[in-house]
């Protein structure tokens, strides 16, 4: 986060900053150090070099105070979480686990992955029981709302093993749009990973921002290729990487910064959202 990425001279300063109004806040360099961005000394250098923004405005004064509960801070245009009570985890949800903190039917749920943490965590969005892959667990309700609601346009990428040989024409159909019982839908991106000439099974990758129930399975079934196995590999800027199925880990500071940046920059509405 501390790479050399100095903003231009045209970056806006905050002309409405009132030192007296912020006098009861916390010094910016102390807040950055507490958030794990850098040591207090290095944080001071970041501030004086114009690499820190508070509520979108460049701050260069070492005496600047902020309110961690309400002010938004970014370093090198990457958001910083100042509230150290917030927790952010990545889970590679296994097949057979429902996306619920307490399943009324007694099926395996997410508690086995969250009981080890003191915070009351919840999942961001859902994966059906037969789908594995990336699921975010957090206690940050504002972030969860932006990431889960399709109107904000946060994309998700899935890899599906499907029956039959998928053709380029089918990929074009998925991208141009198909009609389902609950309305039209299209993939933002789609591509063939493997499609053996003899038939059997194909591997395809789909990216979309829809949050509709079992949408990937229903789309592929509608074009004649029922899903055999489905994994969510990406959620916004996050990538599952090498995280093993059933494993959970904290987001890195870089991943969290990217996620917070996406949530702060998300449009308030998107007319073509599904």
Question: Which helices and strands, and how do they pair?
Answer:
Elements: E1 26-27, H1 28-34, H2 40-48, E2 52-54, E3 57-58, E4 65-66, E5 73-75, E6 78-80, E7 88-93, H3 111-114, E8 122-124, E9 131-138, H4 141-148, E10 156-163, H5 168-176, E11 178-180, E12 183-185, E13 189-194, E14 201-208, H6 215-222, E15 227-235, E16 238-239, E17 248-250, H7 253-265
Helix pairs in contact: 1-2
Report on the structure:
With 274 residues, the protein is of the alpha+beta class. It has three domains: 19-80, RNA-binding S4 domain (Structural Genomics Hypothetical 15.5 Kd Protein In mrcA-pckA Intergenic Region, Chain A); 88-151 and 238-265, Pseudouridine synthase I, catalytic domain, N-terminal subdomain (Alpha-Beta Plaits, 2-Layer Sandwich); 155-235, Alpha-Beta Plaits. Helices cover 21% and strands 27% of the residues. The chain is built from seven helices and 17 strands. It has helices at 28-34, 40-48, 111-114, 141-148, 168-176, 215-222, 253-265, and strands at residues 26-27, 52-54, 57-58, 65-66, 73-75, 78-80, 88-93, 122-124, 131-138, 156-163, 178-180, 183-185, 189-194, 201-208, 227-235, 238-239, 248-250. Strands 7, 8, 9, 10, 13, 14, 15, 16 and 17 form a nine-stranded mixed sheet that branches. Strands 3-2-5-6 form a four-stranded antiparallel sheet. It is elongated. The protein starts with 25 loop residues before the first strand and ends in a 9-residue tail after the last helix. The model is unreliable at 1-11 and 269-274 (pLDDT under 50).
């Amino acid at each position: 986060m501390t790479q050399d990425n100095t903003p231009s001279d045209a970056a806006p300063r905050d002309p409405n900053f009132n030192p007296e109004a912020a006098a009861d806040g916390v010094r910016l360099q102390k807040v950055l150090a507490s958030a794990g961005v850098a040591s207090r000394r290095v944080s001071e250098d970041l501030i004086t070099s114009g690499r820190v923004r508070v509520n979108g405005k460049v701050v260069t004064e070492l005496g600047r105070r902020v309110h961690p509960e309400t002010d938004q801070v970014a370093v090198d245009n990457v958001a910083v979480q100042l509230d150290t009570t917030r927790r952010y985890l990545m889970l590679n949800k296994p097949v057979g686990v429902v996306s619920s903190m307490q399943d009324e039917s007694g099926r395996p749920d997410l508690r086995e992955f969250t009981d080890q943490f003191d915070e009351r965590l919840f999942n961001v969005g859902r994966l059906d029981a037969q789908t594995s892959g990336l699921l975010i667990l957090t206690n940050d309700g504002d972030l969860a709302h932006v990431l889960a609601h399709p109107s904000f346009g946060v994309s998700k990428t899935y890899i599906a093993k499907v029956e039959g040989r998928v053709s380029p024409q089918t990929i074009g159909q998925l991208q141009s749009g198909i009609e389902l019982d609950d309305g039209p839908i299209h993939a933002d991106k789609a591509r063939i990973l493997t499609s053996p000439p003899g038939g059997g099974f194909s591997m395809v990758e789909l990216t979309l921002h829809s949050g509709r129930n079992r949408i990937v399975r229903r789309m592929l079934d509608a074009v004649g290729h029922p899903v055999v196995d489905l994994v969510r590999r990406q959620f916004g800027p996050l990538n599952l990487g090498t995280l093993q199925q059933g494993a959970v880990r904290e987001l890195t500071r870089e991943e969290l910064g990217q996620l917070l940046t996406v949530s702060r920059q998300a449009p308030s509405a998107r007319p073509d959202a599904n």
